[in-house]
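re: ur msg from earlier - yeah i can do the zinc ion complex, just paste it... oh wait u already did. ok heres what im feeding in:
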Amino acid sequence: MPLYEFRCRTCESTFEVRRPMAEASDPATCPEGHEGAVRLLSVFASVGATSGTSSAPAPAPRAGGGCGSGCGCAH
Ligand SMILES: [Zn+2]
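and the outut:
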């Protein structure tokens, strides 16, 4: 069952409530007994968000200056 964080608008305390997802947005009662606490945005850790690109080095560029055997330039 997911855990939701609520904030009391009366005493401004935050508290967590474990409740079914279907009741996630229902108002809650804070530990002090105040009604009408509002739910804060859930903070989920983003798992697997890092890029999967390998750290293999890119192929080094060919050293300049060397014309291939098929080059038609005057060098
Ligand atoms: Zn309160």
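cool cool. The beta strands are 3-7, 14-18, 28-29, 35-39. ping me if u need the other ligands too
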